[in-house]
Amino acid sequence: MTTAGAVARAKATAVPASETLPWLISAVLVGLALYYVVGIDQGAVSVLGDTTVLHELVHDARHFLGFPCH
Amino acid sequence: MEARSFVLRGVVAGAVAGLVAWVFALLFAEPQVEAAIAYEEGRGEAEEALATAAGAVPAGGAEEEVVSRGVQATIGLGVGMVAIGIALGLLFAVVYTLLHGRVALRPRVLALVVAGAGFLTIYATPFVKYPASPPAVGSDETIGDRTALYLVMVIGSLLFLVAAVAVARLVRGRIGTWNAVLVGGVVYVALSAVLTTVLPGLGELTINAVENGPRVSETPLPLRDASGAILYPGFDADVLYHFRVASFAAQALLWGVLGLAFGALVERRLAKGEVGERTPETSAA
């Protein structure tokens, strides 16, 4: 770690966690939810109801992105 | 810069990456998907004819289309690609925020490193064991098992990379950065090799093994009559190959554009901050 790095580290931690954490936590939650909806829901398991509209809409993307599909 | 700036730039870069991957998929995925669906339909007819000949009552009419093929192959594909781009952009931004200012790399280099790590763990390593498959390759009955096994590969790869980085940091002081990265790479490959060896191939899942004997994959075999004569061919190997190469390339493109666009956006913001109000992070580069 260089001196510049150490300075940067000190300054990075200067941002209060109370401002950073809500953004990071929501980003993780929304990111995982989207990943789940595009890749998995209405397939093996479903939280968005018993229809397959969403599954069929993103069907080609799901195959192409490498997710298991029917 | 604070977390908010990084997260918003992650969304923008992810959406752009998704759009680029969408165009790529329109050109290189859809021809293979169409060929796979044509195979699936032809095979369905051949199976029905075989069942009718054997005296079975034909199954009810064709499945009703919930979303037309035209929509699936264009808008649906785009919605899926952009949504996954935003999803990965968000997760990417979180990891980037945690590392920014803590490693001695300028932002655009760090962004590419994080994007490379995402590609390696979330797509490329699982692909080695369970590669992307077009329609017709993959049995309805095993969707639960296949989803669980795929997620085990994704989560395992992420944990292995964390372990590899931890080992590399531990030995870096003694053997230097170059050798520490090599050691980390060996740790990652070794752990991944163990997991891919331990997990079953899709053809080894009980339902498939009972039907066809143990095989590596679920790729359809030729349809045969009682005498063993082929009534309908197995899945076209070339279609499968082209689909998988295109899938791999699209993910590399998605992660590459995400890393490059995010790095450029962050460096532009930092440069602006240097000219205007002085933000402390400008020294992080």
Automatic annotation (TrEMBL), chain A:
Protein origin, superkingdom: Bacteria
UniProt-listed InterPro entries: CbtB_put
Alphabetically ordered keywords of this record: Membrane, Transmembrane, Transmembrane helix
Transmembrane regions listed in the UniProt entry: 20-38
Pfam families per record: CbtB
Stated name of the protein: CbtB-domain containing protein
Organism in which the protein naturally occurs: Actinomycetospora straminea
UniProtKB/TrEMBL annotation, chain B:
Entry superkingdom: Bacteria
Transmembrane segments: 7-29, 75-97, 109-128, 148-168, 180-202, 241-266
Keyword annotations from UniProtKB, A to Z: Membrane, Transmembrane, Transmembrane helix
Protein name listed in UniProt: CbtA family protein
Organismal lineage: Bacteria, Bacillati, Actinomycetota, Actinomycetes, Pseudonocardiales
